[in-house]
Design brief:
By secondary structure, this protein is an alpha+beta fold. The chain is built from 10 helices and 11 strands.
Length: about 240
């Protein structure tokens, strides 16, 4: 919803989205600096992939057509295929390739690996990092596959029911706590005086998230202290 408001695809019921202090709604000069890849397909179904690249160059003058064809070859995407014949995975890849080759300072990616197998997901993340290295800019990734992108992202914003729960560097978020695992009774005793965010119990074993930047030095036998998982932290914060 937020990304659609930023790109003018829907309008906010209240408040407004600003780009450098300027409203984004119905503002061509601002929208030309933002590109959004979404789950929805806004291309004519009869259009060929190669024509998608050509029209993207018309709207975004610096579109890298050569790199788009290179990425298509790497992903096994036939650029002569029509949009309506593409599988869910290749439809996603097609839109992702356009997003990676558009010349805009802000690229918004909404569920960019929808329908992709593990190999193609890994290749897409690698291509994203390569594109960023070649031309640094801001990529915003909206995804439910949190753990999978944790090694790619630098900054995290956690949204829940219209509120921002966290907005900080990824490393800062992950070093702000730790996980305690072990026999349930031992874990309960060890964490009785600590800020427990939440946890899981399986049989006689338990694992809980603790909010503290400094893990304890004196850990009893049977208790394991590990780094926070971004996905587990997200789940605990939104429960």
């Amino acid at each position: 919803t937020l990304l659609n408001i930023i790109t003018g695809r829907i309008f906010a019921d209240e408040g407004e989205a600003l780009y450098d202090g300027v409203p984004v709604a119905e503002n061509d000069s601002v929208q030309g600096r933002i590109y959004m890849m979404s789950e929805a397909n806004h291309y004519p179904e009869g259009m060929r992939v190669s024509d998608m690249f050509r029209w993207s160059r018309e709207f975004y003058g610096g579109f890298d057509t050569e790199r788009a064809h290179s990425l298509s070859e790497a992903f096994g995407l036939n650029t002569r295929s029509r949009v309506k014949t593409l599988s869910t995975g290749y439809n996603t890849l097609c839109k992702a390739i356009v997003a990676l080759c558009v010349d805009a300072p802000f690229i918004l990616l909404d569920e960019p690996v929808l329908g992709l197998d593990a190999h193609h997901r890994e290749l897409l993340y690698r291509s994203l990092l390569e594109c960023y290295a070649r031309k640094p800019r801001t990529y915003i990734i909206s995804t439910h596959l949190i753990e999978e992108v944790s090694g790619v992202i630098e900054h995290v914003a956690i949204l829940h029911r219209g509120r921002i729960l966290r907005d900080c560097p990824c490393e800062e978020l992950l070093t702000g706590g730790y996980t305690v695992s072990g026999p349930a009774a031992a874990v309960d005793a060890f964490t009785a005086d600590k800020a427990v965010l939440g946890g899981d119990t399986l049989g006689g074993l338990k694992s809980v998230c603790i909010l503290s930047a400094t893990p304890p030095a004196d850990v009893p036998a049977g208790i394991e202290i590990t780094r926070l998982s971004l996905q587990k932290l997200f789940i605990r914060m939104t429960e």
